[in-house]
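Lecture 7, part 2: worked example. A protein chain together with zinc ion.
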Amino acid sequence: MSFAHETKAGLVALSETMKRDCCRRAELYGILCMSGVFTRQKCKLVTSCGELAALTIKWLGDLYSTTGNLYVTEKKSGEADERSSNKITVPQKRELERLFHSFRYEPDEPETSIKREMLRCPNCAAAFIRGAFLSAGTITDPEKSYHLEMSLTSEALADDFAALLSEQELEPKRMTRKNEHVLYYKDSESIENFLAYIGANTAAFTIMNKKIERGLRSDANRIANSELANIGKTVAAAGDQIAAIHTLMQSGELERMPDELRQTAMLRLENDDATLSQLAALHTPPITKSGVNHRLKKIMAWGR
Ligand SMILES: [Zn+2]
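Predicted complex, written out as structure tokens:
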């Protein structure tokens, strides 16, 4: 099952256990309102999620005594669990009008606003938003990237929905794609918040775990990179020192240096990949790391 389908199937299972009628009505309203075709002439929901299709038909009957038609078509391509397309309509014009009336729309009121009267108890908004996600939303597998979006056909409805989300402190980002108005979340934290808010706890945890896993991996990379950078610095410094010592040798300056400096210079030449601590230990008698550092600086500055 795809991550999106799994998330939606989990949400439908949660919705089926919901006791309060006000919340179930709010959720069904969210499902239909965000389905893309929601007017008094025509109401249509197309989804690859069979569980959502079954829930919608059941609730239309249970909550509004309305008959929904379901057509299932099988597609040849796509992921195995996304191959059936479920189309739900409310074919009877009279039933559709009654439904709009029940959703508190005035007879000539446009269908592009969210009727807040439908959100009656403190949990109704979450139920409505869950319905909207089930109907118009999708989420990318966190293995690939962090992305959750809801795509609407009406700009006015997208505006109103964005406002409702912001009221719940779930302010979405906006973009348009062809004729679609897309509300989306791109960072893992807002996706987690959204999922937790609508009750998709398993999906929220999956994203959280993925983030922790990635964090650990990037910490490990950062450490490895900084070690590499230090090695790179050591090699570059040694290269400069060796070049300077060669020049001093050719000019005869090396012979004029005090014995202790000459010893350090020769050890540097012979051990071009040694660290300062290793060089220090090679001296007779051994000297300290800062002693080596001090002598190398003197060598580099010799004759300047
Ligand atoms: Zn409620």
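The chain has two domains: 3-199, 230-301. Residues 3-199 form a domain with the Endonuclease I-creI fold (CATH 3.10.28.10). Keep this in mind for problem set question 3.
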